[in-house]
Amino acid sequence: QIREFQRTILSYFNEHGRSFPWRGTQDPYEILCSEIMLQQTQTERVVPKYIAWIEEFPTVESLAKATFADVLTLWSGLGYNRRAKFLHDACKTVVEELNGVFPSTASELQKLSGVGPYTSCAVSTFAFNNVEVFIETNIRSLYIFFFYKDAHTVLDSELMSLIKQTLYKDDPRTWYYALMDYGAELKKKVKNPNRKSAHYTKQSKFEGSIRQARGVIIKQLTNANKLSLTSIAENESIDFERILKASQSLVKEGIICEKNNIVYIDNYGK
C-alpha cells in the first residue's frame, strides 16, 4: 500500500510537477528566503518578490550587511513584516557566528531567528536532501484526502505518523515537492480537505484589521525617514487608535522605533 501510494504521488509529479525558481537551487540561503516568504503568502505573490530579492541580496553575506530599511523596502507587499526581521537576523547570525556556513540539520537550523519546526525541516530537506518529517497546508490536505475521507477532526500528530510511514527516503527532496504539488492541485478540484483538520481556522478579515494598519505603517516608513502616527492615520484614512495599536505591536517586535508618537525604522547594526 505504501509503495502504491508513493507511485501515485511521484507519477503525478513527473507529469504535472510545478516549477518555481527556488526549486532550481540547493543553496540553503536561497531556500530559507523562499520558505520564510511562503509562510502565509500565496505562491503567485512570492515568485516575483523572490526573484527581485535574490537579485538584490544574492548571498547570505549581502543580506546580513544590508540596512533594515532596505530589507523592509524590498519586502514591502509580502505582509507579515516580522518575517523580514527574522530572516535578516538569521542571516546575520550565520555570517557573524557561523562563518557564513548554514547548519545542515533541522535541530541546528531551528536555532536561527524565526526558524521553527516546519521551516527547519523544509530547509534541511530541500537544501541537503535530509530525511525529515514535516507538514504544511498542502501536505495536510493530501493526507486527509487519501486516508481520512470520513473523519472530521484530524490531528496533525496522526498525520505526522502517516507521513513518517510513507516517506520516500530515496529522495525526500523530490518526495516533498510532489506531496505539495498534489495537495495544491487537490484544492482546485475538491472541497478543501483541511476543513477536516482539528487545527483548521479561517483567516481573519484583513480590511479594518490591525494587520492592515501594520502594513500601512511599514509602507509609509519605507518612503520616509520619520513620520508621526497622526499623519499616517490621516493620510491613510485609518482611525488613530488602530494605527497606535499597530505601531505598539511593531515596536514590541523591534521592527520600528517610536518616540513621542514619531515612528521610524532603526538601521540597527549599521
Structural write-up:
The model has no long low-confidence stretch (mean pLDDT 91). Helix content is 59%, strand content 3%. With 270 residues, the chain is mainly alpha-helical. A hairpin with a 2-residue loop joins β2 (257-259) and β3. Strands 1-3-2 form a three-stranded antiparallel sheet. The chain contains 14 helices and three strands. The longest helix is centred in the last third of the chain and has 18 residues, at 172-189. α2 runs antiparallel to α6 (82-97), α12 (210-221) crosses α14 (240-252) and α13 (229-236) crosses α14 (240-252).
- Low-pLDDT segments: none
Q: Please give the alpha-carbon distance between the first and last residues.
A: 57 Å
Shape: globular
* Tally of individual helices: 14
Number of strand segments: 3
**H-E string:** HHHHHHHHHHHHEHHEE
Mean pLDDT score: 91
Largest sheet: 3 strands, antiparallel
Q: Give the strand order of the largest sheet, numbering strands 1, 2, ... along the chain.
A: 1-3-2
Oligomer: single chain
Q: What is the SS-derived class? A: mainly alpha
Beta content comes to under 5%
